[in-house]
Amino acid sequence: MLCAPGEVDQFIIQNLPAATEADSPAFTQFAVESVFPAVGKPFVAVALFFFAFTTVLAYYYIAETNVAYLRRFFRVPGEMVILKLLMMGSIFYGAIKTAGLAWGLGDIGVGLMAWLNIVAILILFFMGKPALKALKDYEAQRKAGVEQYSFDPEALGIKNADFWKN
Q1: pTM of this structure
Q2: What Cα–Cα distance (Å) separates residue 47 from each residue in 31, 36, 38, 43, 96?
Q3: Of 1-5, 25-29, 117-121, where does mean pLDDT reach its minimum?
Protein backbone atom coordinates (compact mmCIF):
# COMPACT_ATOMS: atom_id res chain seq x y z
CA MET A 1 0.00 0.00 0.00
CA LEU A 2 1.38 3.40 -0.93
CA CYS A 3 1.31 6.22 1.59
CA ALA A 4 2.37 9.83 1.51
CA PRO A 5 5.58 10.61 3.39
CA GLY A 6 5.00 10.73 7.13
CA GLU A 7 1.69 8.79 7.02
CA VAL A 8 1.22 5.43 8.74
CA ASP A 9 0.26 2.32 6.76
CA GLN A 10 -3.32 1.35 7.50
CA PHE A 11 -6.22 -0.40 5.88
CA ILE A 12 -8.46 1.66 3.60
CA ILE A 13 -11.53 0.11 5.23
CA GLN A 14 -11.30 -1.90 8.42
CA ASN A 15 -14.59 -2.72 10.06
CA LEU A 16 -12.79 -3.92 13.17
CA PRO A 17 -11.43 -2.10 16.18
CA ALA A 18 -8.10 -0.41 15.42
CA ALA A 19 -6.40 -2.37 18.21
CA THR A 20 -6.98 -5.68 16.38
CA GLU A 21 -3.63 -7.31 15.70
CA ALA A 22 -3.10 -8.53 12.15
CA ASP A 23 -1.18 -11.63 13.25
CA SER A 24 -3.96 -12.88 15.52
CA PRO A 25 -6.97 -15.08 14.78
CA ALA A 26 -9.27 -12.08 15.34
CA PHE A 27 -9.81 -11.44 11.62
CA THR A 28 -11.01 -15.00 11.10
CA GLN A 29 -13.19 -14.85 14.21
CA PHE A 30 -14.86 -11.64 13.03
CA ALA A 31 -15.32 -13.06 9.52
CA VAL A 32 -17.08 -16.17 10.85
CA GLU A 33 -19.16 -14.07 13.25
CA SER A 34 -20.29 -11.84 10.39
CA VAL A 35 -21.99 -14.88 8.86
CA PHE A 36 -22.80 -16.92 11.98
CA PRO A 37 -23.19 -14.63 15.02
CA ALA A 38 -21.54 -15.81 18.28
CA VAL A 39 -19.84 -18.76 16.55
CA GLY A 40 -16.52 -17.15 15.54
CA LYS A 41 -14.47 -17.69 18.70
CA PRO A 42 -15.56 -21.30 19.35
CA PHE A 43 -15.13 -22.18 15.67
CA VAL A 44 -11.60 -20.76 15.49
CA ALA A 45 -10.67 -22.42 18.80
CA VAL A 46 -11.87 -25.85 17.64
CA ALA A 47 -10.32 -25.42 14.19
CA LEU A 48 -6.95 -24.39 15.70
CA PHE A 49 -7.05 -27.35 18.09
CA PHE A 50 -7.58 -29.87 15.28
CA PHE A 51 -5.06 -28.15 13.03
CA ALA A 52 -2.43 -28.14 15.78
CA PHE A 53 -3.19 -31.73 16.81
CA THR A 54 -2.97 -33.16 13.29
CA THR A 55 0.16 -31.10 12.56
CA VAL A 56 1.89 -32.45 15.66
CA LEU A 57 0.90 -36.01 14.71
CA ALA A 58 2.20 -35.57 11.18
CA TYR A 59 5.49 -34.01 12.29
CA TYR A 60 6.02 -36.74 14.88
CA TYR A 61 5.39 -39.43 12.27
CA ILE A 62 7.85 -37.78 9.87
CA ALA A 63 10.47 -37.42 12.62
CA GLU A 64 10.05 -41.03 13.76
CA THR A 65 10.42 -42.45 10.25
CA ASN A 66 13.51 -40.27 9.72
CA VAL A 67 15.05 -41.57 12.95
CA ALA A 68 14.20 -45.14 11.92
CA TYR A 69 15.93 -44.54 8.58
CA LEU A 70 19.01 -43.00 10.20
CA ARG A 71 19.13 -45.90 12.64
CA ARG A 72 20.33 -48.09 9.77
CA PHE A 73 23.58 -46.13 9.58
CA PHE A 74 24.34 -45.30 13.21
CA ARG A 75 22.69 -45.97 16.53
CA VAL A 76 22.30 -43.62 19.46
CA PRO A 77 21.16 -45.20 22.74
CA GLY A 78 17.56 -44.18 23.43
CA GLU A 79 17.05 -42.25 20.19
CA MET A 80 13.24 -42.66 20.28
CA VAL A 81 13.10 -41.46 23.89
CA ILE A 82 15.20 -38.43 22.91
CA LEU A 83 12.85 -37.75 19.98
CA LYS A 84 9.77 -37.98 22.20
CA LEU A 85 11.31 -35.65 24.79
CA LEU A 86 12.25 -33.14 22.07
CA MET A 87 8.71 -33.25 20.65
CA MET A 88 7.11 -32.79 24.08
CA GLY A 89 9.52 -29.98 24.91
CA SER A 90 8.82 -28.17 21.64
CA ILE A 91 5.05 -28.55 22.10
CA PHE A 92 5.28 -27.18 25.66
CA TYR A 93 7.52 -24.32 24.55
CA GLY A 94 5.17 -23.44 21.69
CA ALA A 95 2.18 -23.52 24.05
CA ILE A 96 3.59 -20.97 26.49
CA LYS A 97 5.30 -18.58 24.08
CA THR A 98 3.76 -15.97 21.82
CA ALA A 99 2.26 -16.82 18.46
CA GLY A 100 4.80 -14.58 16.69
CA LEU A 101 7.66 -16.71 18.01
CA ALA A 102 5.91 -19.93 17.02
CA TRP A 103 5.32 -18.61 13.48
CA GLY A 104 8.94 -17.46 13.26
CA LEU A 105 10.25 -20.88 14.31
CA GLY A 106 7.83 -22.52 11.88
CA ASP A 107 9.10 -20.31 9.06
CA ILE A 108 12.69 -21.23 9.91
CA GLY A 109 11.78 -24.93 9.90
CA VAL A 110 10.00 -24.73 6.55
CA GLY A 111 12.90 -22.78 5.06
CA LEU A 112 15.43 -25.36 6.26
CA MET A 113 13.26 -28.17 4.92
CA ALA A 114 12.98 -26.44 1.53
CA TRP A 115 16.76 -25.98 1.24
CA LEU A 116 17.39 -29.61 2.24
CA ASN A 117 14.89 -30.74 -0.39
CA ILE A 118 16.55 -28.57 -3.04
CA VAL A 119 19.94 -30.11 -2.22
CA ALA A 120 18.41 -33.61 -2.34
CA ILE A 121 16.80 -32.90 -5.72
CA LEU A 122 20.14 -31.70 -7.10
CA ILE A 123 21.89 -34.81 -5.77
CA LEU A 124 19.23 -37.05 -7.32
CA PHE A 125 19.43 -35.16 -10.60
CA PHE A 126 23.19 -35.48 -10.94
CA MET A 127 23.57 -38.94 -9.40
CA GLY A 128 20.20 -40.45 -10.33
CA LYS A 129 21.25 -41.87 -13.67
CA PRO A 130 19.13 -45.06 -13.29
CA ALA A 131 16.00 -42.97 -12.73
CA LEU A 132 16.72 -40.84 -15.79
CA LYS A 133 17.37 -43.98 -17.88
CA ALA A 134 14.04 -45.45 -16.75
CA LEU A 135 12.25 -42.17 -17.54
CA LYS A 136 13.74 -42.02 -21.04
CA ASP A 137 12.78 -45.66 -21.65
CA TYR A 138 9.21 -44.96 -20.52
CA GLU A 139 8.96 -41.88 -22.73
CA ALA A 140 10.29 -43.86 -25.72
CA GLN A 141 7.71 -46.61 -25.13
CA ARG A 142 4.96 -44.03 -24.80
CA LYS A 143 6.00 -42.29 -28.01
CA ALA A 144 6.02 -45.68 -29.78
CA GLY A 145 2.40 -46.24 -28.70
CA VAL A 146 3.06 -49.30 -26.54
CA GLU A 147 -0.10 -50.60 -24.85
CA GLN A 148 1.67 -52.59 -22.09
CA TYR A 149 4.68 -50.77 -20.66
CA SER A 150 7.64 -52.88 -19.58
CA PHE A 151 10.71 -52.20 -17.48
CA ASP A 152 13.85 -54.25 -18.05
CA PRO A 153 16.70 -53.06 -15.80
CA GLU A 154 19.29 -55.27 -17.51
CA ALA A 155 18.55 -53.80 -20.95
CA LEU A 156 18.95 -50.30 -19.49
CA GLY A 157 22.17 -51.18 -17.67
CA ILE A 158 20.68 -50.63 -14.22
CA LYS A 159 22.36 -52.73 -11.54
CA ASN A 160 20.95 -54.07 -8.26
CA ALA A 161 17.33 -54.04 -9.45
CA ASP A 162 16.66 -57.68 -8.60
CA PHE A 163 13.02 -57.03 -7.74
CA TRP A 164 12.25 -55.95 -11.31
CA LYS A 165 13.90 -58.88 -13.08
CA ASN A 166 11.47 -61.35 -14.67
Answers
A1: 0.56
A2: 14, 15, 15, 6, 19
A3: 1-5
